[in-house]
Amino acid sequence: MGPPDHASGLPVGEWTHSHEEDEPGVLVYRRAESFPFPPTRGGRDSLRVDGSGQITALTPGPDDRPRPMGIRVLSDGSHADGSHDDTAPADTMEIVESTDTVLKIRRR
Fold first, then answer.
1. pTM
2. Are 46 and 17 in contact (CB under 8 A)?
3. Residues 6+ apart with CB under 8 A from 20
4. pLDDT tens digits in sequence order for the chain, 108 residues long
5. What contacts 15, CB < 8 A, 6 or more positions away?
6. 21-25, long-range: CB within 8 Å, 24+ apart, which pairs?
7. DSSP characters for 49-83?
8. Among 54, 16, 59, which Cα is nearest to 34's?
């Protein structure tokens, strides 16, 4: 378990998509090192939160190793590093719930 990151409000570390637990409109992420994920054929996306608040999306590559897909932007238009951008990309997220064991987000 990582400490909470003050820029994004999320605990630092890697969060893996637990699509079996998704709710309508809400994506559920868990920590791979402490959650027993069932096997899946398609691999699992994940989010990595670093100490500076940067949130990087990861997706399984052709060899199943995670590949970075870009930086997520918080739903208020500010980047995870605290900067603000009125021309933020459409790939934003709203944090619905954040604890040491579960992360729930809504994509906008």
1. 0.71
2. yes
3. 38
4. 444 444 456 788 999 999 999 999 999 999 988 899 988 887 899 998 888 877 888 888 877 777 887 665 554 444 444 444 444 444 677 889 989 899 999 887
5. 29, 30, 31, 46, 47, 48, 49, 103
6. 23/104, 25/106
7. E-TT--EEEEEE-TTS-EEEEEE-EETTSBBTTS-
8. 16
